[in-house]
Each structure stands twice: as structure tokens, then as C-alpha cells.
């Protein structure tokens, strides 16, 4: 009688266990996939827009701040040795170190720089050349006294989007 009772209890446990396994496996292996796109704006990782145009061998450049922060901008012209570039009258642009032309004003969101005019002279040894403009932007930072300054070590640039380094080196 004890053996029958033991077999009956074992059978009941096996039956309950067998019935409970399928829902338990379903619980632990069930998945749900949710898909939603959320736009993320970091504000300062977007490069400002640049307009450039050439008319009668004068390249005109203007940079617009399309971001959300105040920025400083600068531009650099890359050109072959057969050319020379001369900055024409451009009120708020100055050529300082490293071949860059710096815009002296803080560029607020939605604002655009004054035109930077670069006169292109070439020796005529080739009819095929290009003047490439590299632009950089950096957020406006302030010191303890509230004076604005630029940290160009944290600048974003279009340099890697312009042309392969080998082609630029050949032009110099």
C-alpha cells in the first residue's frame, strides 16, 4: 500500500511538473521587439554650412552656424605650388598662424560670416587645378573674467571629408 501511494504521489508530481514545464519555458524564452527612432542632437558635432564660389579668380567663402551653440570659425585654403592665394579686403577675417583665416566675431546660431575673398593667381603651367577650403569650428568658451576664447584643439573640421591626404600632399 505504501508503494502504491508512493507511485501515485510520484505520478501526480510528474503530471503537475509536465503541465507546468511548457508555460515555464514559454515564460523564460518569450521575446518582444520594440522599434522606435529618436533623433539625438548633440548640438556641436554638426559642421557649419559653407558657401564657396569662384568668380573671376576670386574665391568667396561664407560660413553659416547651423548648430545650437555660439561658435568661432576658421578656414584654410589648400592649393598647388603653381598658385598663390591673397586675402582681399574682408573686414572680420584675419590671417594669423598656420595658414588659417580666422573670423573675429562670435557666430551665433543662424548667423553667417561676412564673405572671405581669396584672390587666386597661378603661373599658367597647368589648366587643371583646384583650391580646396577646409573649415573648422569650435564652441565659444569663457574664462573666469567672462572673456570669450576658442579652443582649437577641440575643433570639428571638414578636412577628412574634402579629399584623400595623398592628393592634398601632391598639390602642395
Automatic annotation (TrEMBL):
Query: What name does the UniProt record give this protein?
Result: Alternate signal-mediated exported protein, CPF_0494 family
Q: Which residues form the signal peptide?
A: 1-26
Alphabetically list the UniProt keywords: Signal
Amino acid at each position: 500500500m505504501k508503494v502504491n501511494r508512493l507511485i501515485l504521489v510520484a505520478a501526480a508530481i510528474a503530471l503537475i511538473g509536465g503541465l507546468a514545464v511548457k508555460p515555464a519555458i514559454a515564460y523564460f524564452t518569450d521575446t518582444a521587439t520594440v522599434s522606435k527612432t529618436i533623433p539625438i542632437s548633440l548640438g556641436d558635432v554638426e559642421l557649419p554650412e559653407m558657401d564657396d564660389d569662384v568668380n573671376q579668380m576670386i574665391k568667396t567663402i561664407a560660413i553659416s552656424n547651423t548648430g545650437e551653440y555660439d561658435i568661432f570659425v576658421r578656414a584654410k585654403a589648400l592649393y598647388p605650388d603653381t598658385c598663390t592665394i591673397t586675402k582681399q579686403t574682408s573686414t572680420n577675417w584675419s590671417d594669423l598662424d598656420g595658414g588659417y583665416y580666422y573670423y573675429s566675431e562670435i557666430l551665433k546660431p543662424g548667423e553667417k560670416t561676412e564673405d572671405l575673398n581669396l584672390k587666386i593667381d597661378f603661373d599658367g603651367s597647368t589648366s587643371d587645378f583646384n583650391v580646396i577650403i577646409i573649415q573648422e569650428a569650435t564652441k565659444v568658451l569663457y574664462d573666469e573674467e567672462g572673456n570669450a576664447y576658442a579652443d582649437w584643439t577641440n575643433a570639428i573640421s571638414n578636412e577628412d571629408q574634402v579629399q584623400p591626404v595623398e592628393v592634398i600632399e601632391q598639390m602642395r
